[in-house]
Amino acid sequence: MYWFKKLPYFIIIFTLLGCSNMKIENFANAKPEFNLMEFFEGKVQAWGIVEDRFGNLRRQFTVDMTGVIENDTLTLEEDFVYADGEIDKRIWKFSKFDEKSYKGLANDIIGEAVAKEQGNAFNMKYKMDLDLGFGELRVNFNDWMFRIDESTIINKATINKFGLNIATVTLFFRKKN
To answer: Which uninterrupted H or E stretch holds 9?
Structure first.
């Protein structure tokens, strides 16, 4: 019975621990400049992993991307190949709505993604229904990307449900010449 009385406190603590204090403004002076449109125009390759909330490796994948800019909109086609043989495709459409902010739409996200870039950083938040094999789960993604040099970006995305981190996705992007 004692444990049950303390449950609300544990829920509050775990919810607060799941919150990030990182702010895009903290990276305003970091170099090199992120520049979403410039980096993803053309061919880009990525390698990634998915870890559950306990740090266990759940999936590995590669992504081949092609970005085309037309009428101030970046169309980014992503072709995923998972280590287990699954193949998936996502098509993003990004458009600027001010100097450092973007709206993003994709075939498998819910509503619009909202994104900002400052300095060498890019942060994007969106909702998605994840297929779990036995049903779907609507989750929140919080994507942080950091440009390391002219041809490299590191991406860490947290996947949350009810404020709790349920998984982390880590990717390395390499722009092809």
So the answer is: helix 2-17
pTM: 0.86
Domains detected in the chain: 35-175 (2.40.128.20)
Helix H or strand E encompassing 40: helix 36-40
How far apart CA 8 and CA 3 sit, in angstroms, is 10
Per-residue pLDDT reduced to its tens digit, 54-84:
999 999 999 999 999 999 999 999 999 999 9
| pLDDT value, residue 156 | 98
Q: Cα 167 to the chain's mean position, in Å?
A: 12
CB of 75 closer than 8 Å to CB of 83? no
Q: How far apart are CA 111 and CA 126, in angstroms?
A: 8
Instruction: Note the pLDDT tens digit of each residue in 99-144.
Output: 899 999 999 999 999 999 999 999 999 999 988 778 899 999 999 9
